[in-house]
Amino acid sequence: MDIIKIFREERIRMTLQVAQGIFIPFIGTTLGAACVLFMKNKLNDKVRKALTGFAAGVMVAASIWSLIIPAIDQSSGMGKLSFLPAFIGFWLGILFLLILDETIPHLHLNSEEAEGPKVQLKKTTMLVLAVTLHNIPEGMAVGVVFAGMISGDGGISAMGAMVLAIGIAIQNFPEGAIISMPLKAEGVGKGKAFLYGALSGAVEPIAAVLTVLASGFIVPALPYLLSFAAGAMIYVVVEELIPEMSEGKHSNVGTLLFSLGFTIMMMLDVALG
């Protein structure tokens, strides 16, 4: 009976840990979106570039240390071909985001021309869709690492999974502000701008939960799925975040904050993961 009790308690503890980890990134987005409730003026260009650069740096570091390196490590039994699952998964992630990019109408920040199919949608709606689009791989990344943690076969520790969730939350904070503040500048009320900003991150816990629920199918293909999430995240960084932090008048602030975000996430993953 004691063994059964211990097993149940362990299951409850793990379930709570997974639930916390899944919703931590969404909290980051919500807190960032809340900036619109307290800031009077529109987001300064240098501040926007800094926030975008920081988010990009965190995503690149998370892709390498939390996703690609574990994917290669888990394929070590393949010898010199241990890179293959990471290679294949990475490219599948790139192509997946490319397909979403081409099939979902969306509008990037400071752009007047919408991407994807031509549809009659409000500018604010397409701005939110653009952010929602790149939050999907982040949610999948969190779901994949927690699925690996639950299985116990993926070599992913509870702390390692939590570090990725915290890292995604850190980079979600500026993203929340980056979407809510421009919406306010477009004439959307503070309350609605906050709501849109927060909801743009709601897709992350949904994607994470669906990924965890499919963990029985995921674990055998974990190296492919870890690198898949990495590829999708890198696509977002190169296609959206880096151009946004570099546009307009030249400034090094985006590059410096990219480096800061990269090193902070690297430090968290190596020291705590």
Structural features, described:
With 273 residues, the protein is mainly α. It has one domain. It is 78% helix and 0% strand. The protein has eleven helices and no strands. The two termini are 34 Å apart. The mean pLDDT is 82.
**Overall average residue pLDDT:** 82
Helix percent band? over 70%
- Percent of residues in beta strands: under 5%
Number of strands: 0
Radius of gyration: 19 Å
End-to-end distance:
34 Å
Shape: globular
Counting H and I runs of at least 4 residues, what is the number of helices? 11
What's the story with the biggest beta sheet? Answer: none
Overall number of structural domains = 1
Quaternary state of this entry equals single chain
Spell the H/E element sequence.
HHHHHHHHHHH
